[in-house]
Amino acid sequence: MLLSGGFRALRKRLYPLRYERFIVETSREFGMSPFLIAAVIRVESNFRPDVTSSKGARGLMQVLPDTGQHAAASLGLREYTPDMLFDPQMNIRLGTWYLSLLMAEFEGDLSLALAAYNGGLSNVREWRKQGLVKAGGGGTAGIPFRETREFIVRVNEALENYKELYTEELAQMRAKDQ
To answer: 0.90 cut: is pTM over it?
Structure first.
């Protein structure tokens, strides 16, 4: 038993969960899985709110400033600035809103939504038009960008780990909030 408990503790170090309250609140607001949001954050920033990518994406969910502007306007948030993307609560809210938009765009197809989140919505639309990817394909075959294929695999792996490691804790937190 000690060995399995130690292994679980190690896995929790590899798959940390921070900002749980924001993740739970925001995932509920936008009808998303809190495990998915945690998985995206883990892959994008490893829960570091101050990171900026080489392409200018910022914060926990690596939201581009233009995407943040669009999300903020759609949510009726006034006086948006790109520096707000370094605020964990704001970043999680805007990033989750955007991911929920992509899930709706691709009728719940997680692979396509994640491909668009990482590789760009217009690229995924073009790949579909060219027949490279299909809705319901459920995989990464046909995605031309290696980074995007790897992103999908890593998020799905993290998603499974978060479900296994934190189902009980997040269920308790959701129950308290209702």
So the answer is: yes
